[in-house]
Amino acid sequence: MARPAPALLDRDRLIAAAFAQLEEDGLDGLSMRRLATRVGVQAPALYWHFSDKAELLGLMAREIYAAAYAAVPPADDWQTWLGQFGRALRRSFAAHRDGARLCAAASPALSGEPASHAEGIAAPLVTLGLDQKRALACQAVVISFTLGWESFKANGPMREFLRQMMDFDATFETGLDALVRGLA
């Protein structure tokens, strides 16, 4: 009996399969070979779609960040937007096993000049009154805090020890609110 032909591969399907692999095996278990097996091809076939694993991780991180930006509701001022962004980013990291760790390790999956990307990244805060340089700085601070917090929370033995002393969600909210107020 003939084996069924694998479905046509495209980047979106491969990235979805990579996220499924991440959920099952974590970041340490995500490999091009395992991903190829998951989609029914040999590993070299993946290199038609990604130059290497670093590019795949960068594209996965881009999806995690894009989901956070898309989840931020409209805001009347930049501090409200920034707080909502921090919360959305935290949810986006938490939606994937090792999501924060993946984003911390991934190389940017961007083409073109960084200046053109900076404009798009800063746009929500520029619309609310900040200049581009300040908007990027404020987002970088919130991203760093949120990324660090979720990485810290994901540390198994330390997490269990600290869980006995604090409420991670309430402490995150306290820190994020203080951070955003401080940026004003």
UniProtKB/TrEMBL annotation:
One of its GO terms (molecular function) is DNA-binding transcription factor activity. Residues 8-68 form the HTH tetR-type domain. GO terms for biological process: negative regulation of DNA-templated transcription; response to antibiotic. Pfam families: TetR_C_1 (PF02909), TetR_N (PF00440). Residues 31-50 bind DNA. Coiled coil: none annotated. Keywords: DNA-binding, Repressor, Transcription, Transcription regulation. TetR is the repressor of the tetracycline resistance element; its N-terminal region forms a helix-turn-helix structure and binds DNA. Binding of tetracycline to TetR reduces the repressor affinity for the tetracycline resistance gene (tetA) promoter operator sites. This is TetR/AcrR family tetracycline transcriptional repressor. It comes from Novosphingobium sediminicola.
